[in-house]
Amino acid sequence: MSDNGDQICPYKTLPDSSYWRRGVSNVAPTDMDLVVAPKFKIDQADKLATAGSCFAQHISRYVAKSGYDYFVTEPGHPVLDDACKRSHSYGMFSARYGNIYTTRQLLQTLHRAYGLAQAVDDVWQREGRYFDPFRPVIQPDGFASLAEFHADRNTHYAAIRKLVEETNVFVFTLGLTETWLNADDGFAYAGCPGCGSGRHDATRHIPHNLTVTEVIDDLHEAIEFMVARNPGLKVLLTVSPVPLIATFEPAHVMTATTYSKSVLRVAAQTVADTSNNIDYFPSYEMITGQYIRGQYFEDDLREVRPEGVDHVMQTFFRHYLGRELGDETRTGSASSNSEPDRPSAPEAASAGTEPPRSANDVICEEEVLFGV
Amino acid sequence: MPGLDPPGTIRLVATPVLIFGHSHVWSIRAAIARDSPDPRIAPEVLLCGTAAIPGSLTVAHLKAKRRALNPAILGALRTATANEDRSDIWIASAVQGNYYNQVGMFWEGSPFDFVLPSEPDLPLAPDAEIVPHSAIAEMLGRRMPDLGEYLAELARLEFAGFMVLGPPPPPLDSEHLLKLLRSQTPDADESTISAPFVRLKLWKLQNDIVGSLCADHGARYVRGDVPGTVDHDGFLRPEFVKDAVHASVEYSQRLIGRMADEVTATESMALAPSS
After folding, report:
1. pLDDT tens digits for B11-56?
2. Residue A5 pLDDT > 80, yes or no?
């Protein structure tokens, strides 16, 4: 209440971060910190699992190198050397599911791992080799036999169940809304069949751009599914700042990207607002925000520069892990996304060990599948 | 006239086969010394053992961009054929061959296994984690980094033919493996010996890889599961086992017969006219 009895403008009591001029215009870019009130902390003993789009691999890598418990339930048998694990996508995420770009993929992955769903289009065959339609590039040249395919999948499902039931913190990076669905059962493929993997059948493979309602519903259902089996689970949602590599919509890829990222951003916030155990981490804004004037993107305006990744992870470490990012965990000066041609597999993080990855080793399967 | 063969006589000339390699050659040499294994070929061991062939299979070439053959092998072949027509002579390489054992003869920790594409019904070890066959193949392949270049260099020497002798299959029981294991670690547990079919699959996979490389370079690949020396599953029969990784002289006698099969299957007989 002011001296003359009028109520004080409620904005007057807000912190600097609530004002554009004080929170953005007048802040040095490298000092920008967009996290205001994290909902929870991550202890060093907490098992932290990751899944999502290629950008999420940065989180995997940094956490693994930091001494925190990066929870990998499918590290690859120790008989395999590090190079083999890399080439076979072990440790890229907490289980060997490859990139999970959409919330629909996440939900069906959980259902399949618990035997609650079975895809009609369950295995692809090409030149005597077998491929998983939902993990088409996790293994060089696919599986050599159906027996191996099914044995591996059983191992994979067991690893997902272990992850669901034992992880303390699940970090999921939402990547895309555009997806391709099977016309018979609605299963979402990892990428468009026929683009780098599989064969395209226009009568069976249907393009679908997830709506905000669908993404929210998928996320809700997936998180509830996990929490039902792991009541203490905390979830951290992020949105990948990496633009679409291509759109099937009759729109410019930039406007399609804005739509996708907007949907994902709204969905992430909507879901995060439902629980104190679900939080949103603003890596998207940190990379794309006006304050940095696009400097965190490489010349192609799509790949994220290592400096950007460092800034994001610095902020993550400071607010959620309660420590500053050490030099040993920084990315370095190389480009932080996959190479334009078929990228090499990332250096895997064996359970509890440091992954000797380089900045170039992020796998973006969509780039592989599109042959970019 | 005295000394003339009757008309129509065809005299066979045994094809010389120059053999060189590492430890598997010892029993071949002993087999040759024991008797005349097969009249179709005249085997001769040039180099035998690691001491005779030190270093890697290939070395950096001083001028050319390709690799050069191990000097000991190249020197021995040149010396042996200095005044000979190479187009009448075969060479047989039995180098290394223990890659599969290096990968998985012994394993301490949770067991692993894999599905061999060519024989997917081979038993899987109980409680073993199934690892991708391609991953095991990748690791095996990395243990023989210059084998392709080695074969290419042997092919360049333009002998009548050349073959690569694969190692004998593993034995079923672990007696000799345990002896080997405990020679290095006296109190080692038998459980660190990989399951028999894992060892057999590793051996078979190695044969697939090396056989494919041989085909790429024009070499005949002689697999070590010589008929009569293996049981119905493909393990080396006990009577042919010498130690954890080597086979007996009796085995090598039969191996030489297989070598002769390869020679006669791929080249015409040398005909000697009656004089």
Report:
1. 468 999 999 999 999 999 999 998 766 889 999 999 999 899 998 9
2. no
**Rounded CA gap, B62 and B48, in Å?**
27
Q: Which residue is associated with the tokens 């038998």?
A: B190
Q: For A114-173, write each residue's pLDDT tens digit.
A: 999 999 999 999 888 999 999 998 888 899 889 889 989 999 999 999 999 999 999 999
Q: Per-residue pLDDT tens for A7-21? A: 889 999 999 999 999
Q: How many angstroms separate the CA of residue A284 from the nearest CA in chain B?
A: 36
Q: Do A79 and B104 touch (CB under 8 A)?
A: yes
Measured between alpha carbons, how far is A309 from A306 in angstroms, rounded to an integer? 5
Question: For the whole model, what pTM was predicted?
Answer: 0.82
Q: Which residue has the tokens 């950007």?
A: A308
Most distant pair of Cα atoms in chain A: their distance: 85
Q: What's the ipTM?
A: 0.81
User: What distances in angstroms separate CA B172 from CA A219, A260, B180, B233, B239, one per listed residue?
Assistant: 53, 59, 15, 9, 12
Cβ–Cβ under 8 Å, residues A107 and A210:
no
Running DSSP on this structure, what letter comes out for residue A291?
A: G
Question: Chain A within 8 Å of B12 (Cβ-Cβ)?
Answer: no
Coil, strand or helix at A172: strand
Residue from B101, B106, B108, B130 whose CB has the most chain A CBs within 10 Å, to mutate: B130
The Cα A175–Cα A264 span in angstroms is 8
B135 touches A at CB < 8 Å? yes
Please state the separation of Cα B236 from the chain's center in Å.
14
At A205, is the secondary structure helix, strand, or coil?
strand
* Closest to A58 measured CA to CA, from A324, A326, A369, A311: A311
SS (H, E, C) chain B: CCCCCCCCCCEECCEEEEEEECCCHHHHHHHHHHCCCCCCEEEEEEEECCCCCCCCCEEECCCCCCEEECHHHHHHHHHHCCCCCHHHCEEEEECCCCHHHHHHCECCCCCEECCCCCCCCCCCCCCCEECCHHHHHHHHHHCCCCHHHHHHHHHHCCCCEEEEECCCCCECCCHHHHHHHHHHCCCCCHHHECCHHHHHHHHHHHHHHHHHHHHHCCCEEECCCCCCCECCCCCECHHHECCCCCECHHHHHHHHHHHHHHHHHHCCCCEECCC
3-state secondary structure of A207: strand
Burial class (CB in 10 A: 0-12, 13-18, 19+), A321: buried
Q: How many CB atoms lie within 10 A of CB B218?
A: 12
CB-based contact, B130 to chain A, within 8 Å: yes
pLDDT at A3: 58
Q: Is the pLDDT of residue A74 over 90?
A: yes
- Does the structure show a pLDDT above 70 at A188? yes
Q: State the maximum Cα–Cα separation within chain B, in Å, rounded to a whole number.
A: 77
**Helix (H, G, I), strand (E, B), or coil: what is residue A41?**
coil
* Ramachandran quadrant class, B158 (left: phi over 0; alpha: psi -120 to 50; beta: rest): left
Residue (of A326, A335, A336, A236) closest to A283 by Cα position: A236
Provide the 3-class DSSP secondary structure of residue A155. Answer: helix
Residue B116 to residues A129, A144, A156, B206, Cα–Cα distance (Å):
13, 8, 19, 11
Give yes or no for a contact between B105 and B99, defined as CB atoms under 8 angstroms apart: no
Bridge partners for B93 per DSSP: B20, B164
Helix (H) or strand (E) holding A85: helix A82-87
Is B126 at the interface with chain A, CB within 8 A? no
